[in-house]
């Protein structure tokens, strides 16, 4: 799934907090957003492996959420929703496509790496690929309740994220065709830092 879907899911996890403890809800929304984003910081360094922990994030969240419920504070709520967002992200990656430049071709059996099992988890492809129409629909479904309850900067954050999701959906396939051509123009010293999937040949 695309990053906008992940961060909107992380924020949506904080909606119950908005109902029961509105004072701490903004912390939960921001932490959920950051947690949903964090695993993809490994995009250029072992993507879906270096910062993706489908088991460990979930276990940590199981500990952090009761702590936040028992001792609610800025720190405990931020930790709980950050971990929930990260856990949701890595679990959702399993439901999407494999780790490849053109996932609609279904050439990869690697969805996300489980450090606990020491193996790659295969993709389920309930969402065909990141940026697919159903991925955008999921982003929109997650954004609607957030846009209803939020105001100010958080509202703008959600609206901006949804706009990015729309743009990425429109450009996903053209970008996949363009990437290998751009990579071929890069100087040799840069190439070791470019993920292998961007050096693939072929079109869409």
UniProtKB/TrEMBL annotation:
Keywords: Hydrolase, Membrane, Transmembrane, Transmembrane helix. The chain crosses the membrane at residues 53-71, 77-99, 154-171. GO terms for molecular function: hydrolase activity. The keyword Membrane applies. This is Metal-dependent hydrolase. It comes from Halorubrum tibetense.
């Amino acid at each position: 799934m695309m990053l906008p879907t992940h961060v909107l899911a992380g924020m949506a996890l904080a909606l119950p907090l908005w109902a029961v403890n509105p004072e701490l809800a903004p912390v939960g929304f921001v932490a959920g957003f950051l947690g949903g984003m964090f695993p993809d910081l490994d995009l250029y360094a072992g993507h879906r492996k270096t910062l993706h922990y489908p088991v460990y994030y979930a276990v940590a969240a199981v500990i952090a959420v009761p702590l936040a419920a028992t001792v609610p504070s800025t720190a405990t709520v931020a930790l709980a929703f950050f971990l929930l967002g990260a856990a949701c992200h890595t679990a959702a990656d399993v439901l999407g496509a494999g780790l490849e430049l053109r996932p609609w071709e279904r050439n990869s059996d690697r969805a996300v790496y489980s450090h606990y099992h020491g193996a790659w988890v295969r993709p389920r492809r309930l969402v065909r690929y990141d940026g697919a129409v159903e991925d955008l629909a999921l982003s929109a479904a997650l954004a609607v309740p957030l846009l209803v309850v939020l105001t100010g900067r958080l509202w703008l954050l959600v609206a901006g994220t949804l706009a990015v999701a729309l743009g990425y959906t429109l450009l996903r396939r053209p970008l996949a065709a363009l990437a290998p051509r751009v990579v071929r123009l890069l100087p040799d010293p840069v190439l070791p830092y470019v993920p292998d999937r961007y050096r693939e040949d072929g079109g869409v």
